[in-house]
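Entry for the shared binder. Reason: the reviewer on the internal report wants the predicted structure included alongside the sequence.
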Amino acid sequence: MSRYQRVPRRSTTTVLLALAMTLSALPAASQQIFRYLAFGDSITRGRPDFDPTGQGGYPGRIDDLLNCFDPDCEVINEGKDGEQTAAAVTRIENLLDAERWDIVLLMEGTNDIFSNISNNTIESNLTLMDSKARDHGVDTLHASIIHFDPDSDGGMDPGMVADVADLRQRVIALAADRDRYFADPWTPLCPDQACFNAHYNNPGAGDPNTVGHPDASGYDLMADEFADVIASQPVPNLPPGVAPTGTINVSSPVFIWSKESPFVATWYQLRLLDTDSNVLDETWYEENICGINQCSVSLGSFPDGDYTWRVRARNPLGRSSWTTKVFTILTLLPPNLPLPETPVGFIGDLEPLFTWRRETPTSADSYQLEISDLGGVIFDMELTAASVCTIGNCIADPFSGTPLAPGAYSWRIRGENAAGNGPWTDPKIFHVVPDLIFGDNFESGDFSFWSSVVL
């Protein structure tokens, strides 16, 4: 069902039971304070002299219909007597800046009509109010103003009747164009002159100023209509998080989640936390940022570390629970394999130099050199790259002044940096044989490339 279409009429009892069942079935995490801003003129505010129940217009009644009791949700009445839409633009912006809201129930324009302000101006101001709510991540439910039946207008000026009918169509179109909800409380309230006189146009308590305001039963009808539209969609289910998760090596991740099923959300909130649970970002995004099945948002770059991100869905009835994902940004990876060179094979040097080429790309801050004989490890030391390496080559002299005994040995090397240890190289085997000579009596040398040795 489109968000701006009226749903079939239901009784107050039906709405109350349906919403009570829906809200009671929600997980505890989703039952947070959901705030409705009832914004409008004196019709929203209510006239206590014409409504002795003291319920404050329709907002004081709709909270019962929505089963809206603290700490689950609250409906705040911000109606103001005599207000026109030009002043309302500034007032709603101040309210949006001052407090957090989930949805605005917007019904303005009656005073403009009676002050001969053009429908173009009224529509422009309503659009501005909708945009300011959107900028604050707040849904808008647009409502029609007073409705007159052209066939039983009670002697109203025909031009004013036409203006009211035109403005009603403009509000419907505005809601449709912006994919907003629309409520028409006046058509069911005043479908004919008899109803109009009974609930709206009859001065209360002898005060002629109450003309133009519903009585208690009229406000009951209005509240029921608002509740019907709000309840036309179920509370969104949890939207599954997709990415990022696990360890990633990019500093600018794209946050991706799937739409809930069935899809009924109008907004999504993304919250990013660091390892100390500090909130780094907490933004509401309209559903129109999404594709057919998934939504994605980029938040910029972040340093290496551990993070938690959460996403939840919202529509005018309520908010889903949070989806929670954790990930680690690790742009610095452990070093790749270095390339060991010497010693290898048969050597006569009792104090050999150990040489290797640095890994590609170069990222090691230090190297761990491990040397073993047949009995096990005899040398294990961390050598800083700055002390043993030039641009691409490294040389270590671990046995200077401490000659090796003749025998068989192996050695291996690995790099280290802030991201951790790289892998070990495969062992290099070498044999120390002192006083080696060639068969033609030349002095011994490096036999790593010889196929045989004469002892």
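Summary line for the report: The radius of gyration is 38 Å.
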